[in-house]
Amino acid sequence: MTQEDATRTIGYQLKRVQAALRAAMDGALRAHGLTTPQYACMELLGRQPRLSNAELARGAFVTRQSMNVVLRNLEDAGLVSRPSTAPSGRALPTRLTEAGERTLEAARADVLAIERRMTAGLDRAQAEVLLRQLDDMADALSGPA
C-alpha cells in the first residue's frame, strides 16, 4: 500500500467517522454538562443498573482508572449514586439518580439526532447490513489471530 492510498482503507475511514462522531457528540453533550465517556457510562447504567466499575469501563471503552474519574464526576453532579461500601466483594454497584435519568433522556435525544444525521444516506436495510458488517469486523479482531 502506498502512502497515497492509505486514506482509502476501511480502517482509516472508520477512524475518520469515529473522530467526526466524537466531535459532534462532544458538542451536543456539552449542553447537558456531560462528556462523551460520561454519556456512555450513563447509557450503560440506563440499560443495566448496578454495573461494576470494570464492566462500565469495558462498555465505555475507557480504562478502569478513567472510569473512576467519570463516576466520581457523575456522582458529584448528582447523576449517579454508589454505596459507600460494597454489598459483597469490592464492586460498588452504581445506579442513575432521578436527575441522572432525566439528563440521560435529554442527552440521548441529541445523540440519536446525530446518529440520524450520520446515517441519513442509508435506508433501513443498508443500515442493518452495515451494523452486521461492523459487528463482524469487531468480532474478527477480538478473536484469536
From TrEMBL:
The keyword Transcription regulation applies. It comes from the Bacteria. InterPro entries: HTH_MarR-typ, Tscrpt_reg_MarR-type_CS, WH-like_DNA-bd_sf, WH_DNA-bd_sf. Residues 7-139 form the HTH marR-type domain. It holds the Pfam family MarR_2. The keyword Transcription regulation applies. Keywords: DNA-binding, Transcription, Transcription regulation. One of its GO terms (molecular function) is DNA binding. PANTHER family: TRANSCRIPTIONAL REGULATOR, MARR, TRANSCRIPTIONAL REPRESSOR OF EMRAB OPERON. This is DNA-binding MarR family transcriptional regulator.
